[in-house]
Design brief:
Shape: globular
Low-confidence stretches: none
Distance between the termini: 30 Å
Number of domains: 2
Largest sheet: none
Number of strands: 0
Mean pLDDT: 95
Number of helices: 20
Structural class: mainly alpha
Radius of gyration: 20 Å
Helix content: 55-70%
Strand content: under 5%
């Protein structure tokens, strides 16, 4: 077994108060010694099935095997009889939907995440992604794949597009848009591992493997569990059934993404445990944290508005800083190079609005469906506001990679 990389600390670091309080309320404690050791050991673990596939695709020539991969995602392995054995073997494992997947719970989780609306995506942007820049060793991979050149706005737009595909109606059915997007991201992750790990300045003894299992587990729950948790703090009321459905959806998406079974939540409580433990293991800010977070805080100053653009851009910047400050706290804000305290005016404004909307959604016939449809429209508006007509192709911000 490889040695645990030096980036793994001796003890858990600070965790944002909302996550710590929720973990305590659910009876989730600090990681045991065995759990802590496992978090460190998994910094050297990758995705063996995808690694074997990419090795074979590269040997056979990516110019011929990558189009076959994309055809299989759309049409299925049975429709591509000329696919070589490595592709057939991979899709024989990951095309069939596992017996443990409950389609009704998946759909419930998708509706719940859409019902969080723009506020859920704001949490994903201002708390999960920007707050995640405290993971300095993870930043080492981002910087080496061209993130600085393309910018955080595009990176979040690509991540948001993936999330929108995953939570779309039928997005996770066989060959649905979320299924296809997730397997494409998984392929890109393996190309990133191969590229970054092969760079002469990559310090494996210090940082482990790029896009390793611990990092992927943190990213998974940060993308799909942290946003609804944050939305609860903004007044969006989600039922216990909805929270359990979100955890079930997260488990299936993680399985498709190549996350090992030990990091796939069986319940909402387990999802919070994974979030709590990975945050404590990975949060170690350095200069790269500020290098990535400060430009992201200013991204709204270039967003696309039809009227009163200057005023609305400044308001958007203030709004997103108020969300980040309210959920991350002064310590994290300082570590990210951002103002230690910003009045959390946006959360204060949104809580009563979301409480009323949630009451209507939960009490009125058809309310859940209407709220989910409204949330989907809010996602579309946010994407247009951020990107205008620019491309949001998944993986496009990784400019150093041309093979994927």
């Amino acid at each position: 077994m490889p040695a645990i990389p030096t980036r793994h600390p001796d003890r858990p670091g600070p965790v944002p108060a909302p996550v710590r309080l929720l973990a305590g309320a659910l009876g989730v404690g600090a990681p045991t010694a065995a759990q802590w050791q496992r978090l460190g050991a998994q910094l050297t673990a990758g995705d063996d099935p995808m690694a074997a596939l990419v090795e074979s695709m590269t040997a056979a020539g990516a110019e011929t095997t990558r189009p076959l991969f994309d055809r299989i995602l759309v049409d299925g392995i049975a429709a591509v009889p000329e696919a070589p054995e490595p592709l057939r073997r991979f899709f024989a494992e990951f095309e069939p939907i596992p017996a443990w997947v409950d389609p009704a719970r998946i759909r419930r989780g998708q509706r719940a995440l859409r019902r969080c609306g723009a506020d859920g995506m704001y949490i994903a942007r201002d708390v999960s992604l920007m707050g995640g820049y405290q993971f300095s060793s993870f930043n080492m991979t981002l910087i080496r794949t061209g993130t600085l050149e393309k910018g955080s706005n595009k990176r979040f737009a690509e991540t948001m597009q993936w999330a929108m595909d995953v939570i779309a109606d039928d997005g996770l059915t066989l060959r649905g848009c979320g299924y296809r997007a997730t397997l494409r991201v998984r392929l890109i992750h393996e190309y990133v591992r191969r590229y970054v790990a092969g760079l002469p300045d990559w310090r494996a003894a210090d940082w482990g493997l790029p896009v390793n299992q611990t990092d992927m587990a943190a990213t998974l729950v940060g993308a799909l569990v942290a946003p609804p948790v944050g939305a609860l703090g903004l007044g969006v009321v989600l039922s216990p059934r909805e929270l359990e459905a979100i955890a079930h959806l997260t488990r299936y998406v993680g399985w498709l993404m190549g996350v090992d079974d030990e990091w796939l939540p069986r319940s909402f409580r387990e999802a919070i445990r994974i979030l709590y433990h990975t945050l404590g293991a990975l949060s170690a800010p350095d200069e790269s944290s500020r290098q990535l977070a400060v430009p992201m805080a200013d991204d709204p100053l270039a967003w696309h508005y039809r009227a009163l653009a200057g005023l609305r851009r400044r308001m958007a910047r203030s709004q997103h800083l108020s969300i980040a400050s309210g959920f991350l706290g002064p310590r994290a804000m300082r570590a990210l190079g951002l103002p230690a305290f910003v009045l959390p005016w946006y959360p204060l404004v949104r809580v009563p609005v979301n409480l009323v909307r949630s009451a209507a959604a939960l009490a009125l016939p058809g309310g859940i469906e209407r709220a989910a449809a409204r949330g989907g429209r809010e996602h579309d508006v946010l994407m247009r506001t951020m990107m205008g007509t620019q491309d949001t192709t998944i993986g496009a911000s990784a400019t150093a990679l041309t093979v994927a």
